[in-house]
């Protein structure tokens, strides 16, 4: 990537075209120009057969200049730096500041290109491109232009990994109104790129961002929760709140229930069943002290409430116990 600074002091990251792609584009342009030149020459020979030799020579020279020199200049000027070969290779000629070229830029490139491409069979252009750090030939140097790549392979969009299931909805009571947009942006950028960072550097960045976020919200980071997982859970909570404000409560119905998730603090079986990308992003499971006992107590309380709670309508729930006479035999006889 090459960083170009515009007149408005805006840094542009452009990818200069290298010699192979530029050579292929020039070759395609020359093939097209030669085909047109041959067709025009044949037409002139047929139509000017009655003229004398001097007139035919003058027309031949004019045809050569117009087709092989003037036509490429006109095409680059009208297409803002995209000839037939450049369009096929995904290239474009731009100014040094990243702007579109004009007639004077195309004129200088075309005139010098006759010398370094046509007359020397491209040897001078190849040497200049090898020497230049940005692959520019002499025509680009004198015209103040640069050939860049327009079709860049699309990189994978930034993916914010979801928080672990045991943290979903746990921070529903946080006050996020004091968190500035700059901090949210920094958190999102870290979450999308944390897999590309060195583990130690990424851990220190996550701890610093989590500390800043906890200071803004007024609630400390829960003990035993990794900093990266804490950041992802808070970001998910903010997104859920924005969805509810924009589309109503029904838009966030797919989000995890806060009341159901806040009571559970990372049972081992739930954390082990987390998706692979979640476990890869936030490390191995860490079960806080007393988590399993809380789950067992909550399960027992739920079972007792279900057994004693009357059914809807005020009547106790019907018993589904099978009568003794209908029970299948087990082969066990109690002692006398």
List the helices and strands and how they pair.
Elements: E1 2-5, E2 11-14, H1 19-47, H2 53-78, H3 84-89, E3 91-95, H4 103-119, H5 123-131, H6 138-143, E4 145-149, H7 181-193, H8 199-217, H9 227-247, H10 258-261, H11 268-272, H12 276-282, H13 291-308
Antiparallel strand pairs: 1-2, 3-4
Descriptive report:
This protein has 336 residues and is mainly α. It has two domains: 2-149, no CATH class; 165-282, no CATH class. It has 13 helices and four strands. The protein has helices spanning 19-47, 53-78, 84-89, 103-119, 123-131, 138-143, 181-193, 199-217, 227-247, 258-261, 268-272, 276-282, 291-308; strands spanning 2-5, 11-14, 91-95, 145-149. The chain has a two-stranded antiparallel sheet. Strand 1 (2-5) and strand 2 (11-14) form a beta hairpin. Helix 1 packs antiparallel against helix 2 (53-78), helix 7 packs antiparallel against helix 8 and helix 8 crosses helix 9 (227-247). The chain is elongated. It starts with a strand and ends in a 28-residue tail after the last helix. Mean pLDDT is 74; it is low at 5-11, 251-275, 284-296 and 306-324.
Task: Sum up the structure in keywords.
336 residues, mainly alpha, 2 domains, two-stranded antiparallel sheet, 4 strands, 54% helix, transmembrane helix, membrane
